[in-house]
Specification:
alpha+beta; seven-stranded mixed β-sheet; two-stranded antiparallel ribbon; about 50% helix; about 10% strand; globular; disordered N terminus
Length: about 500
């Protein structure tokens, strides 16, 4: 039974929330499927090779590229049916590996036309000849499987299938079930194609209310990855008074949430998630005079296959415009964001100190003395244990003593820890790319077991000053400069004075 009750029981799921597209059922391809995907290993390999050779259209010669007839829709539909008949895991991984390896770029042609481009430059031939040589090279840089993806995208339900397929690809890469440069390249090609197909012009913004369909409410509940929905009352609260919930759907997949944003309408910038998601009876009417601030407290992607496709940034921008039209008195826009990875990072630092003969470089001498007195242990192993099992929050004294050092450590984690020059924390990187300001770190902002385990209960506000978001985003993306408030910078300074890495 559904977590929300019998009326909201989920429909059968193919992957994520998507059932098999209806359009493909009208294409009869049973007669053409002369092998059984779940059969013997030899038969499966032969079946895959035969399927791929028939389904993946060859790259036509450059001279006839505009005249080449499209492959029969039956072939593309056949690929979909065959793939879905395979069991998840090794069988699908094998098919994806063969597709990436055997139907990629023709490296011989690429080398040939690269040489012709260089030759045209060296001979200083006329511009038209050089541009044509470059166009030929660009054409042959297209992998053969790209043609298959293009044709699948034109099928009714084909876009759903491609998102499903990339979800399998992402999962396979994460678990090493599929690996290698060919597979990684195919993943990148498909991501870029999905980025074009899911660009803002094809997306519809939809608001969720308690009057929305049971199916949509169930999907919103199931997709909530940040603060899980507990029950019907909780769901009703999140789409009721002083709350807004929006999602993007695609014009080819109407009514299907792709990414979901939850907003709280408040009178100030929230410092605690409990005040937002606590289970209380929903208010019947809103007093708009009390609303001056919009808090983005949860954004969740519903499909793994759309990871890396820029949807969140556009959703926030569209929702800001929507709120400005509905409630023009709102002046402050901010997130209340989790800090995933902080506790893991901190435990890693403590582990490295343990290996270095109990050197304490994260806490001041007085802080460490107080921690040792409360825990009855002067080693970092005890603190690591307390962090790993969340037991430290049971001691009010320990919570008080750790407040100051954990705040400055968190500030450094968000502001100072980098990956290729950008913020290491993925949530920070997302909001900073959008042009927000790292505005305030909040102590004990998420006291749920999940919040304590992930970030020692801390959360952070990324504030959106609308007039500055474009310049802030450009500065971060261009020079990797993080815009931060005085509170954050002060905590960073305290870290630099009192802690060492």
């Amino acid at each position: 039974m559904s977590r929300l009750g019998p009326c909201l029981s989920p429909r059968p799921l193919l992957r994520g929330h998507w059932a098999a597209p209806r359009g493909l059922r009208r294409v009869s391809v049973a007669a053409s499927l002369r092998w059984a995907p779940a059969g013997s290993s030899t038969a499966s390999v032969a079946g895959m090779e035969e399927l791929l050779s028939r389904s993946v259209p060859p790259l036509p010669p450059y001279e006839t590229k505009e005249k080449a007839p499209p492959p029969a829709e039956l072939r593309s539909a056949e690929f979909v049916r065959y793939y879905r008949a395979l069991e998840a895991g090794p069988p699908r991984a094998e098919l994806l590996t063969r597709l990436a390896r055997d139907f990629g770029v023709d490296h011989g042609r690429v080398a040939e036309f690269s040489a012709k481009v260089l030759q045209a430059r060296e001979q200083q031939r006329e511009l038209g000849a050089l541009l044509q040589a470059e166009d030929r090279l660009r054409y042959y840089l297209n992998p053969q499987y790209r043609g298959l993806f293009q044709h699948l995208g034109r099928l009714e339900g084909g876009l759903r299938f491609l998102v499903e397929l990339r979800g399998d690809l992402m999962e396979g890469l994460a678990t090493k079930a599929v690996d290698g440069p060919h597979v990684k390249e195919m993943n990148g090609v498909l991501k870029n194609m999905l980025s074009e197909w899911f660009s803002t012009g094809f997306l519809n913004l939809e608001r969720v209310t308690w009057q929305s369909s049971c199916e949509v409410l169930q999907k919103i509940s199931d997709s909530e990855a940040v603060h899980p929905v507990r029950n019907w009352v909780d769901m009703k609260r999140r789409v009721g008074s002083y709350r807004r919930c929006y999602f993007f759907s695609h014009c080819a997949i109407p009514g299907e949430p792709l990414i979901v944003l939850h907003v709280a309408l408040t009178s100030d910038i929230s410092s605690s998630i409990q005040a937002i998601v606590k289970e209380v009876p929903p208010l019947e009417t809103e007093d708009t005079d009390k609303i001056t601030t919009a808090i983005f407290y949860s954004i969740s992607l519903t499909q793994q296959g759309l990871q890396g496709v820029e949807l969140g940034t556009y959703l926030i921008k569209r929702v800001v415009k929507e709120l400005q039209k509905e409630l023009p008195q709102i002046k402050a826009f901010s997130s209340l964001s989790p800090i995933p990875g902080f506790t893991k990072w901190l435990v890693g630092l403590l582990s490295s100190q343990t290996k270095e003969l109990e050197r304490n470089e994260l806490f001041t001498e007085s802080e460490w003395q107080e921690i040792s007195e409360i825990t009855g242990d002067s080693t970092t192993e005890m603190l690591k244990k307390l962090l790993n099992n969340n037991e430290w929050v049971r001691s009010e004294k320990l919570v008080e003593v750790l407040h100051s050092p954990f705040m400055r450590l968190c500030a450094w984690y968000l502001y100072g820890e980098k990956h290729r020059g950008y913020a290491l924390n993925p949530v920070a990187n997302f909001h900073l790319q959008n042009g927000s300001v790292m505005w305030r770190i909040n102590w004990m902002a998420d006291t749920s077991p999940r919040g304590i385990a992930a970030s020692c209960g801390m959360m952070v506000n990324y504030r959106y000053f609308l007039e500055d978001t474009a310049s802030n985003s450009a500065a971060y993306l261009g020079t990797k400069q993080i815009k931060a408030s005085e509170q954050v910078l002060s905590l960073v300074s305290q870290f630099q004075q009192n802690s060492k890495l």
